[in-house]
Structure to design on (572 residues):
């Protein structure tokens, strides 16, 4: 298959500014290296801000300090396919966050790390040292394929390991090829934008204009849906038969981002399109990406994700288009079923006999906070026991490949730093997520990461009052409707509308295969517990057996209010 055969559809409307930028500077170099080297310049230009994203970097300002004038800081996101790091690699992240960031590491909802609060003169050294340690941030942001997710639990079987290797291979195959990244961050050299070869640069896969928008890929291994696979542009669902990984169901067109007041933007669950063998994986991934490249909307960034192509042209068209590009037919999807999302907590043993430990990380933030010194503990553990570090899509961490004889000593190190291994957090905390929002995210409308822990304490109290103590409910919060902590899949989702104001979504399910729905358009922070108290009281009285909150909402609340409730799950 030739990935660049079909050029982009020629749009009839005006291209967005981002498209013009990519066409003008297809190497994505901008003037980044020159600005970086100029100590007199406080920040990057608006155009370079866009190019920086392709390098895994966001220009931000500390929103807590805006009254005193903008204080620029940078967020840097790693490319860590499947979220797996060696202990030496983890130690590099830990050191760089300490030396150049705000002393914390943020596990993201796509199994990566973010540094926050990096100042301008720290950017260069941080990026160089990360690359020297054989890690990178290429395409962690921007209109390209983002960090590829894979089931985080350590290789319980060789098949899980194979899925991880496939995820890494897809991440590599879908990387943009511009030399600008290396030139800026490793060599410290500004590319000559006037040189003919730079002007004429065409990426072999992405073409000259890259994608109309971000593209996201994830692998899941049923029955666990711990990557929220159906929320991705491209999802692979592993199919095992007779102890062999025979291939993957290919799902396409998932995505969550929406905007308040714009009904044309909405969350969407991916369609399961067909089945492919492991040998067909790379070609299939490239082909899906090129459908987005060629059919995505380049005139409106709010309408540019692959999900809108799927919604408007339909899965039948999509499959035919894919097959035409591939030159072969996809098999029909194989049956599969998801039972659960979420992480494993505490000690367990992998198939190869090694031990692993799942650790709850509150809102994904690895830090030292008073008596709870998770960051210091993980550093000691990395240095002394060299486990593998696995970041989970629910913003937690798994320490893997541990000698069983080291279990007690690791438990002791954690205890010495105030971190328990048993009963790490309540069921609702373990199943919760919150996006960063304030003070770093420029798009945040309401608090999220900083508010969620206190809110969960309040909800724990309501669960006790309503006789539901210990009940697991998936609760997710974001500071705006973009959906970064995937609130539209939660049993209870909070979506920021303005300071102290949230939309309340209800009705996701345990396996994260069903979208929830808007219950209240505005709930003030002071009203949230009252609102939940009345819902949870009804749920406690009306639930059937062990029925989950989201399923009760679907069965009772939505049947009361929405007579023709659509079934959103895409499970074959
Ligand atoms: Fe996100 C933008 C943080 C996962 C949908 N996201 C942002 C930015 C970069 C804000 C910005 O553009 O200025 C946020 C940086 C905040 C900060 O200070 O760190 C941000 N997104 C995050 C992370 C860190 C949230 C987290 O709690 O971990 C996640 C990083 C993942 C990674 O490692 O790559 C993150 N973002 C997601 C997800 C969930 C997922 O991918 O599984 C989504 C919803 C799924 C989807 O893409 O549809 C998501 N982020 C968005 C959107 C909406 C895109 C859209 O289609 O409209 C934006 C806004 C945009 O792109 O313009 C956005
Ligand atoms: Fe920022 Fe909105 Fe994403 Fe939260 S959901 S990190 S507020 S863009």
């Amino acid at each position: 298959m030739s990935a660049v055969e079909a050029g982009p559809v020629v749009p009839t409307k005006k291209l967005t500014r981002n498209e013009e930028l990519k066409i003008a500077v297809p190497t994505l170099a901008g003037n980044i290296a020159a600005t970086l080297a100029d100590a007199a310049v406080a920040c990057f230009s608006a155009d370079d801000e866009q190019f920086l994203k392709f390098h895994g970097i966001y220009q931000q300002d500390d929103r807590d300090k805006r009254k005193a004038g903008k204080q620029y800081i940078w967020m840097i996101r790693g490319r860590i396919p499947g979220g797996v790091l060696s202990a030496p690699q983890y130690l590099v992240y830990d050191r760089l966050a300490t030396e150049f960031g705000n002393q914390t590491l943020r596990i993201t909802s796509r199994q990566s790390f973010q540094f926050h609060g990096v100042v301008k003169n720290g950017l260069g050294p941080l990026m160089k040292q990360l690359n020297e340690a054989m890690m990178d941030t290429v395409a962690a942001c921007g209109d390209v394929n983002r960090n590829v997710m894979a089931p985080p639990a350590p290789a319980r079987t060789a098949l899980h390991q194979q899925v991880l290797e496939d995820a890494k291979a897809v991440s590599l195959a879908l990387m943009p090829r511009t030399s600008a990244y290396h030139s800026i961050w490793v060599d410290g050299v500004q590319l000559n934008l006037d040189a003919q070869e730079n002007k004429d640069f065409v990426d072999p896969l992405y073409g000259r204009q890259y994608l109309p928008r971000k593209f996201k890929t994830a692998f899941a291994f049923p029955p666990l849906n711990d990557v929220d696979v159906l929320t991705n542009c491209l999802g692979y669902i592993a199919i095992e038969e007779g102890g062999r990984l025979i291939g993957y169901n290919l799902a396409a067109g998932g995505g969550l981002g929406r905007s308040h007041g714009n009904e044309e933007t909405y969350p969407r669950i991916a369609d399961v399109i067909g089945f492919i063998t492991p040998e067909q994986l790379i070609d299939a991934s490239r082909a899906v990406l090129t459908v987005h490249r060629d059919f995505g909307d380049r005139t409106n960034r709010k309408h540019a994700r692959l999900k809108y192509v799927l919604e408007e042209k339909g899965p039948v068209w999509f499959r035919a288009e894919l097959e035409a590009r591939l030159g072969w037919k996809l098999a029909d999807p194989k049956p599969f079923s998801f039972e659960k999302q979420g992480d494993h907590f505490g000690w367990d043993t992998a198939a190869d006999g090694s031990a692993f430990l799942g650790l709850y990380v509150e809102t994904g933030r690895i830090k030292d906070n008073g008596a709870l010194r998770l960051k210091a503990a993980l550093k000691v553990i990395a240095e002394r026991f060299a486990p593998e570090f696995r970041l989970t899509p629910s913003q937690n961490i798994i320490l893997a490949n541990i000698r069983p004889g080291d279990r007690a000593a690791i438990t002791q190190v954690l205890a010495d730093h105030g971190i328990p291994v048993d009963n790490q957090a309540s069921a609702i905390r373990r199943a919760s997520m919150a996006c960063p929002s304030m003070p770093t995210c420029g798009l945040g409308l309401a608090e999220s990461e900083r508010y969620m822990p206190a809110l969960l304490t309040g909800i724990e109290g309501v669960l006790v009052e309503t006789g539901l103590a210990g009940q697991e409910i998936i609760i997710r919060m974001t500071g705006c409707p973009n959906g970064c902590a995937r609130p539209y899949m939660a049993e209870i989702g909070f979506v920021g509308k303005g300071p102290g104001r949230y939309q309340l979504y209800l009705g996701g399910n345990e396996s994260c295969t069903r979208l929830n729905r808007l219950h209240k358009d505005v709930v003030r922070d002071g009203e949230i517990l009252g609102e939940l108290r009345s819902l949870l009281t009804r749920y406690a009285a009306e639930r059937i057996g062990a029925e989950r909150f989201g399923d009760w909402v679907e069965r009772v609340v939505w049947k009361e209010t929405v007579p023709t409730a659509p079934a959103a799950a895409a499970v074959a």
Remarks:
- The domain at 429-557 is CATH 3.30.413.10 (Sulfite Reductase Hemoprotein; domain 1).
- Confidence is low (pLDDT under 50) at residues 1-6, 563-572.
- The longest strand covers residues 244-252.
